[in-house]
Specification:
nucleotide metabolism, Ado/ade_deaminase, 8-stranded parallel sheet, TIM Barrel, Metal_Hydrolase, hydrolase activity, single chain, binds zinc ion, alpha/beta, globular, A_deaminase_dom, binds adenine
Length: 336
Amino acid sequence: MNDALIRSLPKCELHIHIEGSLEPELMFALARRNGIALPYESVEAVRRAYQFRNLQDFLDIYYQGMSVLITEQDFYDLAFAYLERAKADNVRHVEMFFDPQGHTARGVAFETVTDGLSRAIADAERTLGVSACLVMCFLRHLDEASAEKTLDEALAFKDRIVGIGLDSSEAGHPPSKFKRVFGRARDAGFFVTAHAGEEGPASYVWEALDELGVERIDHGNRAMEDETLVGRLVREKMALTVCPLSNLRLRVVDDLSHHPLRRMMDKGLVVTVNSDDPAYFGGYVNQNYREISEALALSREEIAAIVRNGFHASLMPDEEKKKALAEVDRVLTELP
Ligand SMILES: Nc1ncnc2[nH]cnc12
Ligand SMILES: [Zn+2]
């Protein structure tokens, strides 16, 4: 019902793992280019395998999928394809997660990854008018020493990497495990964020705030189990990067009509809508807006409020934010 509005509004994407935008067609093309055998016979067989009972089921397939990424050009092709898709959804600004340890562990140089991604970002900025920046995530199932080593490598690319995040298997890997390396990242001037409260408990959200000093929470669904925590997030205007289709496919929610997004908004939380791993979860950012809007019967004003939250919570320069927010207002008045 609000399709035209969703399409017309300029948007931000603040929670996208670039490796999670690897469509099966590109996966096969890169496997062929690099002489890598995939354990699937066709693109359709890959898509059929995308049935997940939980986050770990997905991660096992996600790490296997990224094994086709070898050369600088592979990372370029991956990121540019995503940015073209984002442009089609009227996304103006992207904060792009990447998982260097998923590549360096396979013998791909850190520089190969960042060179390819940042070249695609520069080209997209020029040719598509989409701005983007890189947020490097630590894999939380690995130890802090590995994260420290990865941060050491990132320091040489400080001009291209703006932020540090934390992702992968959440349960059993609390944010406190990475307290020291996040302290170093903050001291070095990186923006910091972390996945918390996706599958893990509300206490992980507290830890992300108090021990990592995060400036955003990725997901945050389970913060809703703790009223005191919700109050703090509201008071601090801490943005949550919510990913509805991811939550559905990873069974964080059993049905989108039970998704906490509306209750989050009613409590005054700053929520944004994002795609997480769109090639695996059945939709890019507009599809996430469409399905959650329909499931929760979101009004035009509620949709616009989420879009505005995205710009406010982003790292865009203030002048660019102002322009984008003015455009949101213009679209709202012009669309019947
Ligand atoms: N949804 C997610 N949660 C944790 N780690 C991830 N890596 C890629 N997608 C992720
Ligand atoms: Zn994520």
